[in-house]
């Protein structure tokens, strides 16, 4: 049996921008993506702490150590600059493997989205 489990989480980062006219996705500082083991193009779930919105898009890398978290395209309508969000990914795996799997969870500084 295969089940879907938490793979990665960037817990509580501040939205730095919302670009409605971009094609789509979420731009995430590549340092945060690497720390959370999220790759370019990976499907991500976004939870907006400020307004309760939940939606899906895909990740694209932003400049390293910039703290950038920008929602692009239609997703830009679901956030405002300075909202706090959680970025989540999931993975399908065998039920027995899932019992011992440890997800990558990071807790950046939510003031500037840094890892320190």
TrEMBL record:
Superkingdom of origin: Bacteria
Keywords recorded for this protein, A-Z: Autocatalytic cleavage, Cytoplasm, Decarboxylase, Lyase, Pantothenate biosynthesis, Pyruvate, Schiff base, Zymogen
Binding site for substrate: 57, 73-75
Free-text cofactor note: Binds 1 pyruvoyl group covalently per subunit.
Signal peptide: none
EC number(s) stated in the UniProt entry for this protein: 4.1.1.11
Subunit structure: Heterooctamer of four alpha and four beta subunits.
Function: Catalyzes the pyruvoyl-dependent decarboxylation of aspartate to produce beta-alanine.
UniProt name for this protein: Aspartate 1-decarboxylase
Gene transcribed to yield this protein: panD
